[in-house]
Amino acid sequence: MLQRLTIKNYAIIEHLDVDFSGNLNVITGETGAGKSILLGALSLILGERADPGVLFDKTGKCIIEGLFKVKKSQVAAFFQEHELDLEDQLIIRREISAAGKSRAFVNDTPVNISQLSELSTYLVDLHQQFDTLDLGNSDFQREVIDALVNKPAALQQYQGVYQQYVQVQKQYKQLSDSRDSANKELDYNRFLLDELSEAGFAPHEVEDLDNELQLLSHAEEIKNSLNRAYFQLKEDEQPILQQLKQLQSSLQGLSSFHKDMPGVAARLLSAYVELQDIAEEIENINDQVQYDAQRIELVNERLTLGYRLFKKHGVQQTDELLQIKDALTVKVESVLNLDEQLATLEKEQAQLQEGLLQMAAVLTAARQAEATPFEKKVNTLLAQVGMPNARLRADIIPGELNPFGQDTIEFLFDANKSNQFAPVGKVASGGELSRLMLCIKSLVAQSVALPTLIFDEIDTGISGEAARQVGVILKDLAKAHQIICITHQPQIAGKADAHYFVYKDAKADKVTTSVRLLSQEERVNKIAQMLSGEKPTAAALENAREMLAVGI
User: Fold this and answer.
1) What is the phi/psi pair of residue 512, to 5°?
2) Cα angle for residues 55, 60, 66 (degrees, 5° grid)
């Protein structure tokens, strides 16, 4: 509930404090006096965009502050989500500097405009003249029916599953596109992979083959050198090993004549043993080296294949070629696995869709069950506000799954019992739309925990008994909600619990807007003026008193 609205330096308001009652508050005044300016200022603390051009004094800043009394349970989730301090009284402040900078605060904690807009949805429903256009909007029509059905848990459960469904659809589309794109390269990648697999190179094979070819190509030269070395070491007329052995024995015999002789002899013995091992190794190598023309041909073929693949793939080593093979294997297998993944996603999508259809059917049934009572209640209220021949029909048309079920809801209107129903936004006049919106909101307000409802000239296009009945509806709404209503109708003003008068005041060559709460006698006079003009007649004054007496 809005308890107080403070406005400083806004439009033609210099400074204004308005304390509202918790029931039906009516605001009246001459056209252009500034009634809608109050709502413009209020809209700023509800998250509307700020315009620095609205400053009354361009050298100061504009401050709009609203004091709300709230039930903590209504806004607890919002305050917890945004880490704000929650108290019994809620102060929302909006500041606009001359430079155009805007700041917003909730209980003196800075918040952004999107947060302010979100918070306002828990506090105030602001109905303005142009809002009647919402009646032709399918989303608004669905929201009305869903508010009356009043099963938010079922809708939230559906929407949770629907989000999963949309996500799976998105994944399926992306994967399907990836598969289509990958399939274009699959044949080529598979050809490259088959070529590398058929080549069957082992790690370092090309490099090893190159070394082997060098050996095979020089086999005769190598064997000649090995044979010569082996012959000189062991088989010559005076083999090196034999001469070394003799030298070692001769020096060993001199060991007793010089202290260094045993060491020299031992070193010669070690050299003899080493050269003997070398001779045997040379013999082994010589046995292994064989000229093999067939093997040379085979190695050349493998090397030719290897170097061709090196050039084709832009690499220089066998291991790099094998890495390319592994990468191609992954690509080919991933494409082949896409079909399996798509099949899994398709199955999951079908399961989610089946669940959604079941939940959507529950929502549809609830909406259909509410549609007829809703039509009857609205049509009864339409007769009450001076439209006895008007009829509203709520058509619920099943369709494709969407974020709110599978229904398209359309309000159809017949103003003259002609049974020629047409979309309400196309056939209802401005006055009819205003009264229809009031009837609908009065029903919705019973299901929605919204403490404050604000109506800006909801009485457009009506007068007399119809206006009185609008006042009756507003008065009834005010039993459970705070109502703030700007009106030109005395029949509505007479129903108010608090009547505020907006007027212009000229001070020091400045025109400002002021508001005052009218006393009982002042109300009589203002309502009489609304009935008969600036100088009310005695009959008008008496009529005004009767209106106030009935209103109370």
Assistant:
1) -125, 160
2) 65
Query: For 103-114, what is each residue's pLDDT tens digit?
Result: 999 998 999 989
Angle at 479 between CA 477 and CA 485, to 5 degrees: 50
CA dist 367 and 399 (Å) reads 14
SS3 497: coil
Judge if 205 and 88 occupy the same domain.
no
Crossing angle of helices 240-252 and 261-288, in 10° steps, is 160
Q: What is the pTM of this model?
A: 0.64
Residue 200 gets the label, from left (phi > 0), alpha (psi -120 to 50) or beta, of left
Q: Is 470 helix (H, G, I), strand (E, B) or coil?
A: helix
The answer to whether residues 247 and 268 touch, using CB atoms and an 8 Å cutoff, is yes
131 within domain boundaries: no
* Residue 211 to residue 205: CA distance in whole angstroms: 10
Q: Do 439 and 466 contact (CB within 8 A), yes or no?
A: no
- Is residue 513 included in any domain, yes or no? yes
Alpha carbons 502 and 268: distance in angstroms, whole number: 127
User: Could you tell me how many residues make up the chain?
Assistant: 552
Residue 28's Cβ-count burial label (10 Å; 0-12, 13-18, 19+) is buried
**Nearest C-alpha neighbor of 203 from the set 323, 302, 308:** 323
Contact between 303 and 206 (Cβ < 8 Å):
yes
The answer to whether the beta carbons of residues 138 and 410 sit under 8 Å apart is yes
Distance CA 547, CA 200 (A): 103
Question: Where are the strands (E) in 20-154, listed by range?
Answer: 24-29, 62-69, 89-96, 102-106, 109-111, 124-127
pLDDT in tens, 190-245: 888 889 998 899 999 888 888 877 777 777 778 788 888 888 888 778 888 888 88
Query: Measured between alpha carbons, how far is 525 from 516 in angstroms, rounded to an integer?
Result: 14
| Number of compact structural domains in the chain | 2
Alpha-carbon distance values, 527 to 36, 489, 504, 518, 538 (Å): 19, 9, 18, 11, 12
Spatial distance between the Cα atoms of 2 and 20, rounded to a whole number of angstroms: 7
Give the angle 80-82-83 at the CA atoms, nearest 5°.
60
Strand order in the sheet with 405-414: 391-402, 405-414, 422-423
- Work out the burial of residue 496: count CB atoms within 10 Å of its CB; fewer than 13 is exposed, 13-18 middle, 19 or more buried: buried
Are residues 500 and 516 in contact, defined by beta-carbon separation less than 8 angstroms? yes
Structure tokens that stand for 495 in this block: 């129903």
Among residues 337, 356, 373, which one ends one of the domains? Answer: 337
Parts of the chain with a pLDDT under 50: 128-130, 132
Among 24, 84, 34, CA closest to 442? 24
Q: Which residue has the tokens 């494409």?
A: 335
Give the domain CATH number at 117.
Answer: 3.40.50.300
- The pLDDT value recorded for residue 552 is 54
